[in-house]
Amino acid sequence: MSVKNKIALVTGGSRGLGKDMVLSLAKKGIDIVLTYNSNKEAADAVVAAIQSLGQKATAFRLDTSNISLFDDFIKEVTAYLQEQYGSPYFDFLVNNAGTGLYAPVTETTEAQLDAIVNIHYKGVFFLTQKALPFMNDGGGIVNISSGLARMTLPGSSVYASMKGAVETLSRYLAQELGAREIRVNVVAPGAIETDFGGGHVRDNKEINDRIAGVTALGRVGLPGDIGGVVAFLCTDAAGWITAQRIEVSGGQSL
Fold first, then answer.
1. What is d(CA 252, CA 254) in angstroms, rounded to the nearest whole number?
2. What domains are defined for the chain?
3. pTM for the complete prediction?
4. CA dihedral defined by 110, 116, 121, 126, rounded to 10 degrees?
5. Residues 142, 242: contact at Cβ < 8 Å?
6. Could you tell me which of 36, 61, 35, 32 has the C-alpha nearest to residue 49?
7. pLDDT tens digits for 156-167?
8. Ranges under pLDDT 70 in the chain
9. Which pLDDT score, from 0 to 100, does residue 200 have?
10. Which active-site residues does the annotation give?
11. How far apart are alpha carbons 78 and 69 in whole angstroms?
């Protein structure tokens, strides 16, 4: 009798860092359930890429800022898992989905702040809460933070504050879930060349050069720098790592 593959649920897995995460996880022999916000074609392409690596994969649409959707989403996911694997349980949760906000404190509106709180904190908190009854003991959670929770960049106060909140939440989750041997860790990328935030790091040469100039390894990060670290945290080799923040920034702003 073959051993069932481990399964990871990854939010925002259709593009950018999330895409690299799910491909890296698949290369570790982990099956994938990913979410996307609006671009089904991109999500389907990622699913096909995962399947070409020999792993099972599927994609569900989810707006992670809308907590009222979570109950139905979990029902969809667990029904799929029951059908495909004969069990509604999965092993890893990667809370990756997010959007950026670039606004000085003096110009940030309440609506902007609420939107970031919903997707970067409430969404992470309550999706984790809803998922936990269906997570296997001995699994793991990886929450995606940001180097901006440690270093400052004017205009990122709200976004960075929510990432700081998630880092604190992760330590509490690690403590509370320790009895189930569920490990909870944070991966905090530095500046990365993706379409995140309109691609301002990738496409603005002045910003790109400035960040590279304050980074020990001399360049801006690429999506491929991040996914392997997330995948590692979902392997047995990381079995004694919990409540840790791993910054993956090439030594930005040391």
1. 6
2. 7-248 (3.40.50.720)
3. 0.96
4. 90
5. no
6. 32
7. 999 999 999 999
8. 1-3, 197-200
9. 67
10. 159
11. 14
